[in-house]
Specification:
The complex is a heterodimer of chains A (about 425) and B (about 140).
Chain A (H helix, E strand, L loop, with lengths): L4 H4 L3 H22 L1 H9 L21 H6 L13 E6 L9 E5 H17 L7 E4 L7 H12 L3 E3 L6 H10 L4 E4 L1 H13 L11 E4 L6 H11 L2 E8 L4 E7 L6 E3 L4 E6 L13 E7 L10 E7 L1 E2 L11 E2 L4 E2 L4 E3 L2 E3 L1 H10 L7 E8 L2 E9 L9 H19 L3 E6 L14 E3 L5
Parallel strand pairs in A: 3-4, 3-5, 5-6, 6-7, 18-21, 19-20
Antiparallel strand pairs in A: 1-2, 7-8, 8-9, 9-14, 10-11, 11-12, 12-15, 13-14, 16-17, 18-19
Helix pairs in contact in A: 2-3, 5-6, 7-8, 8-9, 9-10, 10-11
Chain B lengths: L1 E10 L4 H11 L4 E8 L3 E8 L2 H10 L4 E12 L4 H11 L4 E6 L7 E8 L2 H10 L7 H7 L1
Antiparallel strand pairs in B: 1-3, 1-4, 2-3, 4-6, 5-6
The chains are: A alpha/beta (about 425), B alpha+beta (about 140).
Chain lengths: ~425, ~140
């Protein structure tokens, strides 16, 4: 199902024309209204009028998360505060949060994009949507909320937390669509299993999951345990929140809403644009946002783009599932390791739980990786050797995938912190000493 | 003649075994036998408790990984050679012991050992034929 066929299925040629018109306009506007951007362009001797083709985009400087912090909180806003009707912000767990402002037209756009997202996932006005993304400064809650309302679905704004209550509401209200982080959906599954609830008797059929990287194996697990079809959505506070890209029913990558967001793939080390089809860092330019339009924002998300037309009819480029972030990436003894790779190993091993945490330490000159995995009822055996076999199996699989030796430690159930929002998967102790 | 044993996963950290006994204490469940097995970084506590099903559910409710397994309880004369003679009988019956530990005994002239074996039904049959005294769960939980 397609919410906005006129735009989502427009020809690539017309799309490029539209993108160019919008790019010229946004560069002019940001140059005029954001002193920080103007001084960066002036330093390069670049005028907005020099942007004459989509390829000229590469002349423009990148903007990094670090710069967003330098201009905290409102330094990159391109409209007066009186036009800004809402503020959202990132969690700021790694420093100052990123603050995003929205004008009324930005909010309308966001609701439109989320309507596209929800529709692509198969949600209609007949659905009851349980929105378990956190409401508040986090963009997930209100983003889903307005998108689902826009298409006329019944929204249950339950927010995150209180999993027993989530399940009660799901059952009693006949919820058909669940929106939350993938890790929280597994927690819901876990509690449902503990309560002996039969998911087959629930009306739940679709999950709209995002806000953290997850693997294909984890998708299978969620689908089996919750008896639903799970879809991946993508977004960032810096761009708009959720509503940047979404899977369709064919699930062959996430369609980027290219009429509003112009994507590029670059080599994260050199900043050079990479040829089509290569994996690298995703860079996004906001083409139409008014209050907080970032130009060439480096997302730090690693993916690759496909441009062939999708069977669903959408012409928008599809980005592959994000396998990790450049800043989630751990370099352990010279090997690039993404937490999602470890997760795919764990999900692939029947006895192991995908509740895990990676602890990286420095032992003399050597980096060591410890993978803590929760023992649950399914895994637990009265025999030491069976448990040791699971440890060995996980270590062996990690070794064959990544070529590094990991110490696998089993830990007691429910001792790894569960997330309402994003899971904390990595503790890197090398930075502390 | 089969006895239910309750096993719980433990990390090798101070206080984790105490957390298990705390649940049993709160539920007023008496321990009849206990043994700890450990590997490098985790352990398993195996227990014979007077009401194993209740112990299982209180420990599950407290988020422990718990398993019930079947073991046998063998009565052994509390004197030199007591265990030795029983083991010889077990050997003659071709029984392989996975692990064993003894019951916390009150004053008497008998000791009781808990055995985990492969093929428990077959073992019980053989031991009965060999006149080894096996205790029922009632005897182990209450009457000792």
């Amino acid at each position: 199902m397609i919410w906005d066929r006129q735009h989502e299925c427009m020809s690539r040629k017309r799309l490029r024309e539209l993108q160019l018109t919008r790019l010229k306009s946004v560069v002019r506007r940001v140059y005029k209204n954001v002193p920080y951007f103007r001084s960066k362009l002036d330093a390069l001797g670049l005028k907005p009028a020099k942007i004459k083709s989509l390829d000229d985009l590469r002349k423009l400087p990148f903007i990094t998360k670090h710069e967003l912090r330098e201009t905290y909180p409102f330094g990159l806003f391109a409209t007066p505060m009186k036009d800004i009707v809402r503020i959202h912000s990132s969690s700021g767990t790694t420093g100052k949060p990123v603050v995003a402002g929205y004008t009324r037209s930005d909010l309308n756009l966001w609701a439109e994009l989320m309507a596209r997202t929800m529709t692509a996932g198969g949600t209609t006005a007949d659905d009851v949507v349980q929105n378990a993304y956190g409401y508040g400064l986090f963009t997930g809650g209100l983003g889903i909320h307005y998108g689902a309302e826009k298409i006329g679905a019944t929204v249950v704004p339950i927010s995150g937390g209180n999993t027993a209550r989530q399940l009660m509401v799901m059952e009693d209200f006949g919820v058909t669509v669940l929106a939350c982080t993938p890790s929280y959906s597994l927690q819901i599954a876990e509690v449902a299993e503990e309560k002996g609830m039969d998911m087959r008797k629930m009306k739940l059929r679709v999950g709209i999951f995002g806000a953290e990287p997850w693997s294909e194996e984890m998708r299978k697990e969620i689908e089996e345990r919750l008896r639903i079809r799970a879809l991946d959505i993508y977004g960032l506070t810096e761009i708009i929140g959720p509503g940047v890209a979404s899977e369709c029913e064919h699930r062959c990558g996430l369609h980027i809403f290219e009429d509003h967001f112009l994507p590029e793939i670059i080599d994260p080390d050199t900043g050079e644009a990479l040829p089509e089809g290569q994996r690298g860092e995703l860079v996004i330019t906001c083409l139409t946002k008014k209050a907080f339009p970032v130009i060439r924002f480096r997302t730090r998300d690693i993916t690759r783009l496909h441009h062939e037309k999708c069977d669903c009819g959408r012409t928008f480029a599809r980005m592959e599932r994000v396998t990790g972030r450049t800043d989630d990436m751990l370099i352990i003894r010279g090997v690039n390791v993404f937490p999602s790779q470890i997760e795919s190993v764990l999900v692939g091993i029947e006895e192991a739980e995908p509740h895990y945490q990676l602890i990286v330490r420095k032992d003399g000159p050597m980096d060591t990786l410890e993978v803590q995995v929760e023992v649950d009822q399914r895994l637990f055996s009265d025999e030491i050797k069976k448990l040791q076999n699971v440890e060995r199996k996980v270590a062996h699989e990690i070794n064959s995938l990544l070529g590094i030796h990991a110490k696998v430690t089993l830990v007691q159930p429910k001792t790894i912190e569960r997330s309402m929002g994003k899971a904390k998967r990595v503790i890197d102790m090398r930075k502390e000493g | 003649m089969k006895i239910k044993q309750v096993s719980v996963f433990l990390e090798n950290k101070p206080g984790h075994l105490r957390a298990v006994t705390e649940e049993l204490t709160k539920a007023k469940l008496n321990l009849r036998a206990i043994s700890l097995a450990d590997s490098e970084d985790f352990g398993i506590v195996r227990m014979v408790v007077e009401d194993p099903d209740k112990a299982y559910s209180v420990l599950r409710a407290a988020n422990h990984a718990v398993q019930e397994t079947e073991v046998i309880a063998v009565e052994v004369p509390d004197q030199p050679g007591g265990l030795h003679n029983v083991l010889r009988t077990l050997e003659e019956c071709g029984v392989n012991i996975e692990y064993m530990y003894s019951v916390l005994e009150r004053k008497s002239n008998k000791a009781v050992i808990i055995l985990r074996v492969e093929g428990i039904d077959e073992v019980i049959r053989k031991l009965k034929t060999a006149n080894v005294k096996l205790l029922s769960s009632g005897e182990v939980y209450n009457a000792l």
